[in-house]
Amino acid sequence: MPAVEDSITIAASPEALFALSQDYALRREWDPFTREMQFLDGAKGPAPGVRVWGRAWNGLTMTVEYVTVQPPHVVAMKMVRGPWFFASFAGSWRFEPAAGGATRVVFRYVFTTRPRWLPWLADPLVRWAFGRDIRARLRGLKHGAERKRLVAA
Q1: Is 104 exposed, middle or buried (0-12, 13-18, 19+ CB in 10 A)?
Q2: Cα(116)–Cα(43) distance, integer angstroms
Q3: Nearest to 17 by CA among 72, 66, 91
Q4: pLDDT of 43-95, one tens digit each?
Q5: Calpha distance 105→22 (Å, rounded)
Q6: Would you tell me which of 41, 90, 115, 145 could form a disulfide with 78, CB atoms 3.0–4.6 Å apart?
Q7: Cα within 13 Å of Cα(128), Cβ side
Q8: What is residue 104's three-state secondary structure?
Q9: Which residue in 12, 42, 43 sits closest to 30, CA to CA?
Q10: First-to-final CA distance of the chain
């Protein structure tokens, strides 16, 4: 299963960054990928089994389900409904303490594409696009935490 991962160090605590990453009221303040996100079925926050619907900057929509929520260290989701070209999709955020009270944030996607005979072409394109999006989202989180001071919001 192909994977795309990147990381960044941010001058904020894992607790603050975990909370900011999962605060959908503030998400559009820092996340260039997200246009809309909402908890489904009356859920108010992340927990295993909770579903979230989202729309990306490119118009694609996806419904994901939290599979792991371990504040302030890790949150992981899997796709339950999404674009036809994904047979499977999952993502995770990890928050690791770093020197000086900072946090190393690791963002990872894993996926399989459809149709099954096309991964030789589709997978490198998806890896490239996801790599670009992951880097932009990590930079956005850093900017939101350090410059916009959203962790204090």
Answers
A1: middle
A2: 35
A3: 72
A4: 999 999 999 999 999 999 999 999 999 999 999 999 999 999 999 999 999 99
A5: 13
A6: 90
A7: 5
A8: strand
A9: 12
A10: 38
**Helical ranges in 1-150 per DSSP H:** 14-21, 27-30, 119-146
> How far apart are the C-alpha atoms of 36 and 7, rounded to whole Å?
24
Helix (H, G, I), strand (E, B) or coil at 31: coil
For the segment(s) 3-33+68-152, the CATH number from 2.30.130.10, 3.40.449.10, 3.40.50.300, 3.30.530.20 is: 3.30.530.20
Specify the pLDDT at position 116: 85
Residue whose token pair is 């118009």: 59
Question: Which residue bears the tokens 């047979």?
Answer: 87
Q: Which 8-state DSSP code applies to residue 99? A: G
